[in-house]
Please model this.
Amino acid sequence: MEDIIAAISTPLGKGAISIVRISGKESLDVAKKYFTSKSLCYKNIIPRMLYLGTFNFSDGSKEKCMMVYFKSPYSYTGEDIVEFQLHGGNIITQLLLNEILNSGVRLAEPGEFSKRAFENGKISLDEAESIIDEINAESEGEVKATLMQSRGQFKRKIENLQNKLTECIAKIEATLDYPEEDFEKSAKDEIFKIVEECANEINEDLKNTQKTKYLKNGINIAIVGSPNVGKSSLMNALIGEDRAIVTDIEGTTRDMLIGSTEYRGIKYNYIDTAGIREAENEVEKIGIERSKQIVKDADVILFVIDGSREKTEEDKIIESSIKNLKNVINIVNKIDKKRIIPKINNEIEISALKQKNIHEIEDKIYNFVIEDKIDFNKNIITNERQINILKECLEVINDLQKNKTESMDIIAMQIKKLWNCLGKITGQCENEKIIDLIFSKFCLGK
Model:
């Protein structure tokens, strides 16, 4: 039998529907062994039509299900595909898959369906990665970014750069084939003009990664302040649930608490830290040390002060430790009471208890970090591997530009190196290990 693969393509667990997928040249022959329907004649089967019928197990048992046939090349993998849609239970789904595997079909490796799609020219490597990122996306903004890449815009840009580099190689070969002709200087000028264009386009994409990284990882926001100023109440108000314990007892928070929410398509990761002060015991001391590290690593710091009382020594110590940082937003809490402390620069007055002005904090964080609205019509690269490859490409370009006086054959080698480096993004390169690594990250059945 031709190498046919099969796997369960839906998450394991109880649900309305489970899908078992088969891909390969003789997939329909496998379906004929098991599936029957009054409305189906295999000789005249209509691709992409759902047929309601029965899956007939070899032991005589039956399962009512639906079958759909995708004819090559108009399928996800580019091969013939058959999918069975059955009742969503773990046992029945596994029994159906086992029946198919017993007929000589092989269990698919993780990501093998998508790898076949890549090998058959249905998707590029960067489009395959966008599928992984789409599945794992945790915010609306990240989904939008991956959808843009899945449409192939980034792939087309990379291919355009590779085409320009191919032209460079052709010019170099012309100078090597006709050394008596005196056009090496003009050829070099044209070549390095194209190399400069490549550098500018790559730099433009990398410039956006500083902002777009927040689409993937979110913004890390540390909530700091002395004990009992309302940090835990603010945390609860920001994430919309009672995650942190709120009491009048100082030092209740001994360790960091993390809660996430989404604002304007960006994931906000709030970290409620232990109150920074002189610790009274070893446990509290550990929590305070962790708080100091969180402050150091945070994208934004919310410094919470109780506006209904004079600043304490602990307030002043924290204020002094963060005064030179540019990512601090001062939060004056408890405005439902009479305000005692004077106005502070870059402040937002709130009442965490009554959830007043909480939206202003969210908006301030967004403007603080993102600054301008992210343009989802442009290339948005959130994939770390692709970002590192673009940086690697710039290194190759820098070497090229430093060696303009080298012979044409050496420049040709460097141009080919750059071409190959760009190809690592789309899969148009000579490195099979990269391709295997990408598809190994996929789940079984995808």
User: Anything to note?
Assistant: Residues 244-254 have pLDDT under 50 and may be disordered. The chain is about 45% helix and 15% strand. The radius of gyration is 30 Å. The CA atoms of residues 235 and 374 lie 27 Å apart.
